[in-house]
Design the sequence.
C-alpha cells in the first residue's frame, strides 16, 4: 500500500514537499550521520561504499534527492529532527579526515537551529536495545498515524501498526536517556573534529 512516508523518504526534484507533511522525525543511527544533516561529500562516500555498486549517475541523483529533502529543516514550518547517533559514527572515517571534519561541523551548525537536535550515545553507555538497528519514527498530527521507517540490507520497511510504532518509540526514549545531553554531545563532536584537523 502507498504511504505518505514515501513522499518524504523518496522525494525527488520533481516533488513539492510540504514541511508540514511530517512535522517530527526521531532518527536513530548507529553507523552514519542522519541523512537530513549529511554533507554531499559524506553522502557520496556512503553511497560509494554500497553493495551492489552504484553508478556515478545514481549516486548523483541520490545526493540531489537528499539535498532537497534537507530543505524540510528550513521551511517556515520546519520538520523537527530529534536524532540520536552512536559514538561510532564520529570515529568511522567515511570519505577521509577532511570530509569527516566538515561533516561534524555541519552537524554542529545544524544543531544551532531550534528544530534540530543531534545527541550522541557514548561508548561508555554499553549495550542498548538498538545495537543492530537503524530507524526513523515519522510523527504526524492526529488523526494521521505515525510510521516507522526501518532500513537494512534487504531494503526499506515501513511499519504502521500502532503496537510496532509504540515499541520503537519506547526504544527511542531509552536511547535518548542513554545519550549525552546537547551540550555534552557538542563538546564531544568538537573534540573529535579537532582530531581530524590534525591528521
Sequence:
Amino acid at each position: 500500500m502507498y504511504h505518505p512516508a514515501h513522499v518524504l523518504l523518496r522525494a525527488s526534484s520533481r516533488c513539492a514537499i510540504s514541511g508540514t507533511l511530517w512535522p517530527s522525525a526521531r532518527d536513530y543511527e548507529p553507523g552514519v550521520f542522519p541523512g537530513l544533516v549529511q554533507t554531499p561529500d559524506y553522502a557520496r562516500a556512503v553511497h560509494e561504499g554500497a553493495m551492489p555498486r552504484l553508478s556515478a549517475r545514481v549516486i548523483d541523483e541520490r545526493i540531489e534527492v537528499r539535498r532537497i529533502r534537507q530543505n524540510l529543516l528550513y521551511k517556515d514550518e520546519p520538520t523537527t529532527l530529534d536524532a540520536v547517533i552512536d559514538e561510532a559514527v564520529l570515529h568511522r572515517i567515511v570519505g577521509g579526515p577532511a570530509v569527516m571534519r566538515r561533516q561534524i561541523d555541519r552537524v554542529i551548525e545544524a544543531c544551532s537551529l531550534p528544530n534540530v537536535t543531534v545527541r550522541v550515545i557514548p561508548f561508555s553507555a554499553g549495550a542498548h536495545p538498538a545495537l543492530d538497528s537503524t530507524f526513523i519514527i515519522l510523527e504526524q498530527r492526529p488523526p494521521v498515524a505515525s510510521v516507522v521507517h526501518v532500513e537494512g540490507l534487504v531494503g526499506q520497511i515501513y511499519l504502521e501498526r500502532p503496537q510496532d510504532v509504540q515499541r520503537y518509540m519506547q526504544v527511542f526514549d531509552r536511547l535518548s536517556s542513554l545519550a549525552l545531553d546537547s551540550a555534552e554531545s557538542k563538546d564531544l563532536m568538537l573534540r573529535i573534529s579537532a582530531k581530524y584537523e590534525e591528521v
Notes: Strands lie at 24-29, 80-86, 116-121, 135-139, 147-152, 155-159. Residues 1-20 have pLDDT under 50 and may be disordered.
